[in-house]
Amino acid sequence: MKKWGILVLMMSIALHGFAGPFTVKDIPRDVEREIFNHFSGSGKERRQEVEDAKEAYVRLQNKAYDSDIPKEDLEIIIVRLHQMYGTNFQKQVGEFDREVAQYKDMVRRVEEKVRLETQKTELENQKAKKEIEELSFRHGMSKEVFQAILEKAEEKYPKDFVAQKYFLEGAIEFSTLKNKMKTEVGVFIKNRLLFSYFIKKKCSIFKKLVDILLQNVLYTKYVHENIFRKEIHMKKLLSILFLTCSCFSFAEHRISWEAVGALPAQKSYDKNIGTAGLLQGMIDDYVIVGGGANFPIKPLTEGGSKVTHKDIYLLKESKNGLKLLEQIQWNTPIGYGASVSTGKEIYYLGGSPEAAHNKDVLKVSVKTEK
After folding, report:
1. Which of 73, 135, 172, 311 has its CA 20 to 30 A from that of 189?
2. Coil, helix or strand for 319?
3. Claim: this prediction has a pTM higher than 0.70
4. Is it the case that residue 370 has pLDDT exceeding 80?
5. CA dihedral angle for residue 15, residue 20, residue 25, residue 28, rounded to 10 degrees
6. How far is it, in rounded angstroms, from Cα 263 to Cα 274?
7. How far are the Cα atoms of 45, 85, 112, 151, 156 from residue 131, in angstroms, in the given order?
8. Model confidence pLDDT, tens digit, residues 104-118
């Protein structure tokens, strides 16, 4: 209940004050009650203490009225004094001038900082304005195009010459890069027989692709809203064009895929459903694969367990595809190791699920008997 009374008192100070000149008659009831309840005892001494507190409260209010501090900030000072000294208004009157002096000093320092920052910003703004004038003589674009971009910058960032300058610089760099790219792409096309071939053949699909690349991939955009820049470089474009050439060259040199056989089932299983993480490589004209893992009983999604296999297959190319010459089982299962072919041997590093063998290095070779 006492906390509520203090809160009401502070609200009275904030809401009823500063209407001045202030008299004893203007003291709010809740403030008067708080002062009366603060002093104990009876008789003349208590009455004098109450009167002194009221007089101090009136002086505090008139000091606030005479100050040139905004009402909102003044209320903060008054409430702060009450929080520190309660109903000891004599003490509050004595501290009021010090609080006001501290407030004014803080305001002065803030205003000085704002003034310096504003001055600095204005200097940067004027410097950018002069740089914009210099850009108008060395932009490398037609006068009409530059003027249109300048008007767009002024519309987007009115009176902000720093942002306008960045906008213009981005547009100029984009224009320069675009022209440079067109020139280099022209040279690139002339020096590529594949490009010449397609141009002579009037390949419409290729022409459309080049147009798209020139219009969209040859794109450098500077995002000036936040003064961040993003750029697609010439090297990336040439890489894309080179890759495109290689793709088109498949018309003459296609990579073909076809089935040449199937591996038999691993020992103890009905069929080979395919494995991952195989040992693999070639020795002369022999193909060797083996090991690997799969889920031969049930898929993983149905709760199946992964099995790593021991089987190693020796295969050789024939008229009908790859022919199985031999199937053996290694001592331990292997899978997900690293295969290194040297021409005469295949080295298989690690890959065993068994802790005792997961650092093993397996050497595979082919023995031919005449």
Report:
1. 172
2. coil
3. no
4. no
5. 10
6. 8
7. 79, 59, 29, 16, 18
8. 888 888 888 888 888
